[in-house]
Amino acid sequence: MSLVERVEGLRDTVLDDTYKGIPLGATVPLGEIGRRGWNAARGDLALPVTTLHGPRVEANLRGMAEYCARHGADLAPHGKTTMAPQLFARQLEHGARALTAATPTQVALMRRFGVPRIILANQLVEPAALRWVAGELAADPEFEFLCLVDDAAAVAAMDDVLAGTGLGVSLPVLLEVGLAGGRGGVRSEASAMAVAEAVRGARHLRLTGVETYEGLVASGGSAADLAEVDGFLAGVADIARLLADKGLYDTAEVIVTAGGSAYFDRVVAALGGAALGGAALGGLDATLVLRSGAYVTHDSGKYARLSPLDGRRATDEPLRLRDALTGWGAVLSRPQEDTAIVGIGKRDVPYDAGLPQPHTVYRADGSRHDISPVAETVKVMDQHTLLRLDPGTALRPGDIVAFGLSHPCTAFDKLKLLPVVDDDATVVDAVLTFF
User: Fold this and answer.
1) Which of 159, 195, 250, 392 has the fewest C-beta atoms lying within 10 Å of its C-beta?
2) How far apart are the first and last CA of the chain?
3) CB-based contacts of 41: which residues, under 8 Å, 6+ apart?
4) pLDDT of amino acid 379
């Protein structure tokens, strides 16, 4: 059964008010949710809830596909951002080469829905998970899987587990290049060579490329931040060339992969065809694979500031990502003239990369008002958000407040269901998540 068929099967899922947002007492199959006429701004959904803006999601999918095509890069977006098979299918339909996972459990979920190509952006060190992957590869010759290596001893242990399966599987791996003080990855050319040599000596692993994540290098968009990112990526390119010079790749196509959602333009410049073309890698074909995941919904915080298709967008760049996430909560109390309490909190919306910020209030009379100049989130608690207001702000209990959110990864993981809305906030569909 194909990914599309399995995703279509989700439309029979029966939704009730155990899913955030479904009106109290309601029961509806996923495939019929868009026929109910529910409207988030009108208060038809049980609050709090987070919605996706359908037209913006579609525009973001198209925009990132166009960006990659223009720069000769492939895309293997991080599925951990959404863990939503319906969105996986849309990403692949828009030309994504593969999906990226962060854990073996995420790999298993992707396989359950028939994803044909997966990159695990970590070392695969758990023997049981390694045996499971070997079984998947042996059972399905069309399945393509890559994981990372950064330690010679781990390479030997992985090789022993694979040998013990008796399946004869040859596992392609990418050398991870890391940042001092960061997460995984080799820290020097010497350690890169040692790990690559260990892979060459293994019976069931072969080196097919290089991987890194530049998002830990900097946290801003200043010239100094970008210079740090560029310097780090130049070192990654040096290692990629070194491995080619030493004949350590065992593949016809070298994969070079990086690219979070903030600096993928710097990745294109440092690791794309102009930098790592065939001549630079000893005549080997090289493919740059970006792994940006947040582009699907973008946001109104961290990535709005840092994305090369938004806050750092060049004046001649025609593409632009749009924020497609909205948190909705009802005003519960106006205990002080300069304070309002809204019923939405840490269990509902992200707060790790910037607090949710109010931008629009919807009233029972159907009116809507921009409150972004006069209201600010100052504290988020488990189920409450405290707004600081200009004293004259007209905001009262029962009003519905829409919030811009920062960091999609920690928006999706709080929800089993995200209603999809149109430009008028009418629910037209919904997306299920599997965390």
Assistant:
1) 392
2) 22
3) 362, 368, 400, 402, 424, 425
4) 98
